[in-house]
Amino acid sequence: MRLLEEKIISEGRVLSDQVLKVDSFLNHQIDPSLMNEIGKEFAARFVNEGITKIVTIESSGIAPAIMAGLYMNIPVVFARKRKSLTLTDDLLTASVHSFTKNETNEISIAKKYLDSNDRVLIIDDFLANGQAALGLVEIVQQSGAQVMGIGIVIEKSFQKGTEKLKELGLRVESLARIASLTNGEVQFINDKVEELV
Amino acid sequence: MRLLEEKIISEGRVLSDQVLKVDSFLNHQIDPSLMNEIGKEFAARFVNEGITKIVTIESSGIAPAIMAGLYMNIPVVFARKRKSLTLTDDLLTASVHSFTKNETNEISIAKKYLDSNDRVLIIDDFLANGQAALGLVEIVQQSGAQVMGIGIVIEKSFQKGTEKLKELGLRVESLARIASLTNGEVQFINDKVEELV
């Protein structure tokens, strides 16, 4: 998605070979117009999948997910993150390890907001090692619902997340795919192809 | 806001005289169309205030705030909640006590996303005792920016939040104002007036 790539180039900060900071428009400050375009793009890419519900995770997944939900006219459910969970009877839960923060959280969704008839689109802001997305897949599958695809705003393609999700037979659509962050520079996958569009 | 009140009546669950649960459309599962209408309404109410930025708090404030930001064509910044903060040099911070959860969190916004020229609209999902809103006001004022108003989705008018904010000379616009939750029933303020509209 050209608009998103341009925003990453102009405002993203490469902190290391592994870390891209985009807190001026996605993770802390949020650009609503860009989120609107992102939502429209997710809706277009998954229009034929009969999606009934979007699942995301707090907090940075909420803005892109809500815009996609608006265009698809379906509800959004966000998983909550907690250090530990008590009283899990009414909850679907999974453990998610964050390599960047080096911490493990329990994520959860109330059972009543997913059922076996749901066809779910999972949306998240970043895909790196895939831990959050895999946790969300696990939760959706616990409910008996079907994961129809994963929509990612920014994919760090040099990490293993996409590969792991595709190995599970899941469709992954990432709006910006980063091939590398070496030398303080963002290189996208398919740069050249997209320039011809 | 009639649409919101109807949603509260049909889907809200009164858990006690103090607690209204609206996690089917606002706090856990989110209704994007309703958020869209809420964003439009906030934008209309604050259209003459020259707002340059919306400030909210994770996680449930994000959806209404992002929709308001879309209609007002301005950025949204969400404060993060943490049990404790280290390295606060680049952060504006405040302490917020939650009476419902009986815990105190540090909330923070990066200094660079607020400056003294900003005219800020604070948006949050609930206003009860006003602790979160007061924490956000404190953060905005630390930056030298001006708080132009507070937009609340659901106000529990029988608690002290609105009063405290108004005592500070702040304009509070709440889209649903709950007079009481006694006997398991939601009573709105101005019920009768609104029926005549």
TrEMBL record, chains A, B:
EC number: 2.4.2.22
Pathway the protein contributes to: Purine metabolism; XMP biosynthesis via salvage pathway; XMP from xanthine: step 1/1
Localization per Swiss-Prot or TrEMBL: Cytoplasm
One Gene Ontology biological process: XMP salvage
Source superkingdom: Bacteria
A GO molecular-function annotation: xanthine phosphoribosyltransferase activity
InterPro entries tied to this protein: PRTase-like, PRTase_dom, Pur/Pyrimidine_PRTase, Xanthine_PRibTrfase
GO annotations of cellular component type: cytoplasm
Protein name, entry field: Xanthine phosphoribosyltransferase
